[in-house]
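Contributing new records

If you add data, match the layout below exactly. Sequence lines come first and carry their own label; structure lines follow with theirs. Keep one chain per record. Anything else will be rejected by the validation script.
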Amino acid sequence: MLTVIFAIALTACGTAKPTLGVAPSKYLIEKALAEQVSQTQQQLAQQLQSPPPEFAITQIALQQLQPLYLGDLPTYRIQGSYHLTIKSPKQPLTETENSFNIYLQRQKEGKTWRIALPQYISNDIQSNWRTYLLH
């Protein structure tokens, strides 16, 4: 009985965090990174009026996995680094030790994940979050 009251009290204090047991796999993290790099490459290609290059992500190193809630959905802030190789006709370009900081949000049914991006009013002031489905 005392254990149940203590568990409820901890949850009510707002210290509850999602379990690491449902944290995203390394495969999902790599997929999210590839999605973000692809979007960046497409934006650059549009500005340069050229086709987006092919790329490969390797050497993903996770440095921190922080569980939290956005709304009532479990979300994981993942920080780390990776190597990016951009394939070009002349010579591939490899960038090492690129850092990343992504938020992955598990949906209620537990079958899909969304990438969550903080939206800022100015450089320091966050207003809300924008999410999009991880394909």
